[in-house]
Write a structure and sequence with these properties.
The complex is a heterotrimer of chains A (460), B (425) and C (122).
Chain A (H helix, E strand, L loop, with lengths): L13 H4 L15 E10 L2 E2 L1 H9 L6 E2 L12 E2 L16 H7 L10 H16 L14 E6 L5 H12 L7 H4 L5 H9 L6 E4 L5 H14 L5 E8 L3 H9 L23 E9 H6 L6 E10 L12 H14 L6 E5 L6 H15 L7 E3 L2 H4 L6 H15 L1 E2 L25 E2 L5 E2 L5 E7 L4 E9 L6
Parallel strand pairs in A: 5-6, 5-7, 10-11, 10-15, 11-13
Antiparallel strand pairs in A: 1-2, 1-8, 1-9, 3-4, 7-8, 9-16, 12-14, 15-16
Helix pairs in contact in A: 3-7, 4-7, 8-14, 11-12
Chain B lengths: L1 E8 L2 E2 L1 H10 L6 E2 L14 E2 L4 H4 L5 H4 L4 H16 L4 H4 L4 E6 L5 H14 L6 H5 L5 H10 L5 E4 L5 H14 L5 E8 L3 H9 L15 E2 L2 E2 L20 E8 L1 H6 L7 E9 L13 H13 L16 E4 L5 H15 L7 E2 L2 H4 L5 H11 L1 H4 L28 E7 L4 E8 L3
Parallel strand pairs in B: 5-6, 5-7, 12-13, 12-14
Antiparallel strand pairs in B: 1-2, 1-10, 3-4, 7-10, 8-9, 11-15, 14-15
Chain C lengths: L3 H14 L3 H7 L2 H25 L25 H15 L16 H11 L1
The chains are: A alpha/beta (460), B alpha/beta (425), C mainly alpha (122).
Chain lengths: 460, 425, 122
């Protein structure tokens, strides 16, 4: 591969590439791709360490919030991101990147989702040892692959509230309203000149964005990919999920018998992805390998998952196939696990279909129980937690149940209809975990799965 | 291979109306947008190219459509039109081997607006589950999947004007990598009054009266002002449009098995970003994007210096130039930079007919690869070259069918996407 | 979102627990019974209008709805999202609150069962 010259982005005759060969003959010549840095913003705070420490302590970030008046809504909790660190020195995204992201406009035009994204991206790049080095890469070598459900909707709500009241609002508030706002802000902020795209497929967005980055890297279209997502709390979404009676009044309790719905969260997550040989050549150490991705659609119903989890199982199987791994190689699962009665039941059926009699023994964690459902970002933040779990050899527990939910003395037991081996109490040490699965089962039926494998230092 | 095309827009349902309009360089009549809500500024744009809603009805059984928002209706209708025009029974597509990749610039904004109105004015507890379900950007893609039983990957991309070509690229990649046997790919947008008014307030829309306008005969009568003039010196904005286009992409083998004659072959794709672009506009330079385009052309063996080498060098460009002042300027600069000293091949600029958004451009690009009249079409709205651009669209004189066509789209906000289409072998 | 099949049994419990205190007194006297029946008939009529107005069922008029016929599955063929849409409309029309675990096959099986539930609540 010549420096400055990305390898062909597409086979010369893509129309003929898949001729009759099916998955067995599918082109697998792509490069191995690894994660070299991660950044996050969540209900636990700004930064990956805040997230990780909050998770491993078994605490929950789902609590009363202040963004808007929750007393008007059916439920009143969310995992709201706390105020940004006061000191500029503590902020991963430097002022230069923020100014560049704002594109010559006042910083106030950046939406909250933009700011989350910039912070996560800055942190991830610094952790990857790239940062300033990013701009020395050849033109077109860096891409951004992002997922979001609402982009700058919160800011637009302020604008539209004024419009509906007959007040003339400043158009600035709506300037970043588009769903592609955060991804574009990251691209502007860090001077990205390669492919930039935003996926908006509800809860699968983040995972699908990571899958797109994987594809792009394997083909040699880019050398570095910033993959992730960002979403911020807004009334539209909060009221919308409540209208579906999908939101639990208490913090969500995935896989429990008494589970009653999801909890909403906000934040951002970014993974820096690079080809393995590039990483080794520059002397960096991968956090984990992104081994494979798969996706499939239920094509069943606009809001309810297909009860047998067939689409989710197909996505998982496709991801395993893409990774060249058998189900037996998966040592833990970071489940989608929203805590709704239907999702967890369907997801269990999918795990059963893929893992068979092992299903009840594979450790499962549910990050949403701690940081809520980050919607378009959820697949990304859960992928990030999966990467850290592999790198640090530890799976976080779900938060302890509040005392009030203890019914017959054994708290809220795991639902016998979806008996996942949920990690509770203390973190589960898994220093020798070989590979892990992260799943996303989206509203509208789009399912995505990512397979990560532990970096053991072995050469390719 | 592109083996089917379904499109719905101001030209009606199906490709025939669009082909005629493109070949003649005559846009369909624009519709007055409902300004009753008071969002629009006085003296601003009043019209858009809107799909006649009644035209969609035959494609949308009432039981299915009763809960679909406007973008879902457009998208599902376009998908069904594509299948019908290819003589395909939807049941043949059902299964895990069929992926869906759609793009939308603005998503389902009318339902989002209605939902927000409920939440903010009547209180959150009055939020309608119907509206919420159909207010998410991926609703149209999900509805297509349900309508067709498409159980492969289901992806919705949002990247403004670059979305449609990115969606084709993503779908083609799924098929090329063997993850899907076929993909329904395309673009959809609705154009409700609030969105139209906001675009107008941002100065994006061609003006009513005054600057740049002139009385002009068009089908359906006189049309004053509000004309999209791609690459024209007098251009002052785009004509907004709604609609949807859905293409069926298949491997050559699958197309052959089905006995379908492809419209075009997907030869290559690429995308890039201009970080100097403001969030809702276009950057100035064009050199970096021009280099990115040049790299794409060289990768696909389609650069100007590859004349005579197979696959052929680009001999037709379908430009996303739309009448936007800065957008068209950047487009011209990018093309000039990519071609360098070599002369540009004939440039088609169909957005004078299709308007901006709604998938019409994507349909026009495919039709230009497949239909002689469209491949040599004049650009509606163009009359005076802009010396600052150095690029003028083709004048409509006869041309041989293109061997390799480049479709180019530059999004407000900085993204760029390109697609190379060739003749089916 | 509640699944209509799963929520049925808990809906039973909730219904029993939430019978309005006034109903006990009213059911004791003949006059009270007649008033109950008239109330329920009125409620049923309003429910039918809500169904037609909110569920986008083209060509349907309130008088065409059979009060005993199943609303979900067979019959009118509504689904869980329709149920939730109806819940929002009913809450607003009658000024009542319906708990999530009450949205089930029992209460929502037909116009008649829904009308009884609402009348007991108002």
């Amino acid at each position: 591969m010549q420096p400055g010259e990305a390898v062909q982005a597409a086979p010369a005759n893509p129309g003929e590439g898949a001729d009759g060969a099916g998955s067995a003959g599918r082109e697998r010549g792509g490069r191995r791709v690894v994660v070299t840095g991660v950044g996050a913003v969540s209900g636990f705070g700004w930064g990956v360490e805040a997230l990780w420490q909050g998770l491993r302590a078994g605490t929950t970030a789902i609590r009363p919030f202040r963004r808007f008046d929750a007393t008007l809504h059916r439920t009143h909790l969310a995992a709201e991101v706390p105020a940004a660190p006061a000191s500029p020195a503590e902020r991963p995204c430097g002022p230069a990147a923020a100014r560049a992201a704002a594109g010559g406009r006042p910083l106030g035009t950046l939406s909250l989702a933009d700011r989350f994204a910039l912070s996560a991206a800055g942190e991830a790049l610094a952790a990857a040892g790239l940062g300033a080095a990013l701009r020395t890469l050849p033109e077109g070598a860096v891409g951004v692959f992002f997922g979001s459900s609402t982009g700058g909707m919160w800011e637009s709500e302020q604008f539209l509230a004024g419009v509906f009241d007959g007040r003339r609002g400043s158009l600035r508030a709506i300037a970043s309203q588009q769903v592609n706002g955060p991804g574009d802000a990251v691209a502007r902020g860090f001077g990205v000149t390669g492919p930039v795209q935003t996926v908006s497929s509800a809860c699968a967005s983040g995972a699908l964005a990571i899958a797109a980055a994987l594809e792009s890297l394997r083909r040699g279209e880019v050398e570095v990919a910033l993959a992730g997502g960002s979403d911020s709390l807004c009334q539209l979404t909060y009221a919308g999920f409540n209208s579906l009676r999908s939101v639990d009044e208490a913090p969500c309790r995935p896989f429990r018998a008494g589970r009653a719905g999801m909890s909403i969260g906000e934040g951002a997550a970014v993974l820096v992805l690079e080809p393995l040989e590039r990483v080794l050549a520059r002397g960096a150490v991968p956090l984990a390998e992104l081994a494979g991705a798969g996706s499939a659609c239920d094509a069943f119903h606009m809001t309810a998952p297909e009860p047998e989890g067939t689409g989710a199982a197909a996505a998982i199987a496709a991801a395993l196939d893409d990774a060249g791994l058998a189900p037996a190689a998966i040592d833990f699962v970071n489940a989608h696990a929203t805590g709704t009665p239907l999702n967890d039941a369907a997801e269990w059926r999918a795990l059963l279909a893929v893992f068979g009699e092992r299903s009840g023994r594979i450790p499962v964690t549910a990050t949403k129980a701690a940081v809520g459902h980050l919607l378009g970002c959820s697949g990304a933040i859960e992928a990030l937690v999966t990467v850290l779990s592999l790198a640090r050899g530890e799976l976080h527990p779900v938060p302890a149940l509040p005392a009030a939910s203890a019914t017959s003395g054994d708290g809220d037991p795991i639902d016998g209809a979806c008996p996942a081996a949920l990690v509770t109490g203390r973190p589960l040490a898994l220093p020798a975990a070989r590979a892990a699965l992260s799943t996303s089962l989206a509203f509208g039926g789009s399912n995505a799965a990512l397979v990560f494998s532990r970096w053991t230092g072995a050469s390719p | 291979m592109v083996t089917a095309l379904g499109t719905a827009g101001a030209h009606g349902c199906g490709r025939a109306g669009l082909e005629r309009a493109l070949a003649a360089g005559a846009p369909p009549p624009a519709t007055e947008v409902d300004r009753g809500a008071g969002y629009h500024r006085p003296g601003g744009a009043r019209r858009a190219l809107l799909t006649p809603v009644a035209a969609l009805a035959p494609w949308l059984p009432a039981a299915e459509a009763r809960r679909m928002g406007p973008p879902s209706r457009l998208a599902v209708a376009a998908a069904r039109i594509a299948l019908a025009e290819a003589g395909l029974d939807p049941a043949q597509l059902a299964g895990p081997g069929t992926a869906v990749v759609l793009s939308t610039a603005f998503g389902p904004c009318s339902f989002s607006e209605a939902l927000l109105r409920q939440v903010l004015r009547d209180g959150p507890e009055s939020a309608s589950p119907y509206l919420f379900t159909e207010s998410v950007a991926n609703a149209p893609a999900a509805q297509i999947a349900i309508a067709c039983g498409a159980r492969g990957a289901n992806v919705t991309l949002c990247q403004r004007e670059a979305g449609p070509l990115l969606a084709v690229a993503r779908g083609a990649a799924e098929v090329a990598a063997g993850r899907a046997e076929r993909a329904l790919v395309g673009a959809v947008d609705e154009m409700p009054p609030l969105l139209h008014a906001v675009l107008d307030r941002f100065g994006a829309l061609a003006a009513h009266g005054a600057r740049g306008s002139e009385a002009r005969e068009g089908p359906g009568g006189r049309c004053r002002g509000e004309i999209g003039r791609p690459l024209d010196r007098r251009r002052d904005g785009v004509v907004a449009a709604d609609g949807a286009t859905v293409l069926l992409l298949e491997s050559a083998a699958a197309a052959g098995r089905g006995g379908r004659v492809p419209l075009a072959r997907v030869c290559g794709w690429g995308s890039a970003f201009d970080p100097s672009a403001p969030p809702t506009g276009w950057g100035g330079g064009g050199e970096a994007l021009g280099r990115a385009l040049r790299r794409l052309l060289r990768r696909c063996g389609a650069a100007p210096e590859d004349v005579g080498a197979p696959p052929a060098a680009i001999d037709r460009i379908v430009s996303g130039a739309s009448g936007a002042r800065a957008g068209d300027r950047l487009e011209a600069r990018v093309l000039r930079a990519a071609w360098g000293a070599a002369p540009l091949p004939p440039v088609l600029a169909p957005k004078g007919v299709t308007g901006e958004y709604g998938g019409g451009f994507l349909a026009a690009a495919v039709l230009a690869a497949a239909v002689a009249g469209v491949a040599a079409a004049p650009a509606a709205g163009f009359g005076e070259p802009d010396p600052d651009l150095g690029v003028s669209p083709h004048d409509g004189s006869p041309l041989p069918p293109p061997r390799a066509l480049l479709a180019s789209s530059l999004a407000a906000g900085g993204a760029a996407a390109w697609l190379i289409l060739g003749r089916p072998r | 979102m509640p699944d209509l099949a799963h929520a049925a049994s808990s809906a039973d419990d909730a219904h029993a627990a939430d019978v309005a205190p006034g109903a006990d007194a009213a059911s004791g006297a003949n006059g009270g019974n007649a008033a109950d029946v008239a109330d329920i008939a009125d409620v049923a009529g309003r429910v039918k209008r809500l169904i037609v107005a909110n569920l986008h069922l083209d060509g349907l008029r309130p008088e065409m709805l059979d009060e005993q016929a199943p609303l979900f599955g067979d019959g009118l063929g509504l689904d869980s999202v329709d149920a939730l849409e109806l819940v929002v409309a009913v809450e607003k029309e009658f000024g009542i609150r319906i708990k999530s675990n009450e949205i089930g096959r029992d209460v929502f099986s037909s116009v008649a069962s829904l009308a009884r539930f609402i009348a007991g609540r108002v």
